[in-house]
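FAQ: What does a ligand-bound record look like?

Like this one, built around NDP:
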Amino acid sequence: MTDNQTLAGRVAAVTGGTGGIGKAICQRFLREGASVYALDRATAQLDGVIFVEMDVTSPEQVAAAFAKIEDQSEKLDILVNAAGIEIEKTIEDTSLDEWNQIFAVNVTGTFLASKAGLPLMRKAAGGSIINFGSYDGFIADPGLAAYCATKGAVHALTRAMACDYGPEGIRVNAICPGYIDTPMLQSFFQDNGDIETLEQAVRDVHPMRRYGTSDDVAGLVNWLAGDEARYASGQLWVLDGGLTAQVQQMRL
Ligand code: NDP
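The answer part, i.e. the structure of the complex:
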């Protein structure tokens, strides 16, 4: 432990903890001195992180994972709900099974993990829950209808949870990223044409002329998780390199 670690003594759980953003969050939390649990469908190797295989859509698996955290660490200070999937379709092309599946992971998964994590946060006498919304919960990308709907639901759930648990010292926020370079974004590029042309086009529409990295996101997560953010709750934190600050640019 070093003097400037901001999360020393804290216990953190990250769903989707082996994914692009989730892994960067686990690494950042470790550097900040927390005990870190990565809860995901797959396990992985990352020195110091405890991997627990868990499908966020299964109430039984979620209960078992949080029981394990309670057994080993007794409490939970930080929960990051980063597990998520994307379906790139209009509603006519989306089957009911696909609709139910994306809601099961992105919305019900956030509900189940939070429900299981809250009693452990009471044992810590407070905590910070960080959900993953998206700029797609405010504005829409074409062909992402179900995904946009799930992220709008996560935004509303975040505000509602912040109202309900604020009196117990539990803060609830959502991060709403724009384009972040992860396997999810790469799969989006692969499904939509020539990757280099697309990547350049995406950079060009950002005022900062780049898209984000998982470490950019982990920085904001780390701030929301820690004491510096002690008065921040119920908010939707857009992190998009300025993308949604500008009106659409005409190509003249
Ligand atoms: P990734 O696909 O890289 O990671 C998502 C992780 O969630 C994967 O490890 C995945 O496992 C896991 N996961 C999926 N379904 C389940 C499940 N049922 N139970 C447990 N784990 C599951 O995505 P990102 O890291 O890019 O995304 C993280 C979050 O950020 C998501 O909520 C996403 O919607 C959001 N976001 C991402 C943006 C981006 O540009 N990347 C933009 C805006 C929001 P597996 O690999 O097995 O599927």
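Follow-up question: can I read anything off the structure? Yes, for example: Residues 15-16, 18-22, 40-42, 55-57, 82-85, 105, 132, 134, 177, 179-180, 182-185 surround NDP (CB under 6 Å).
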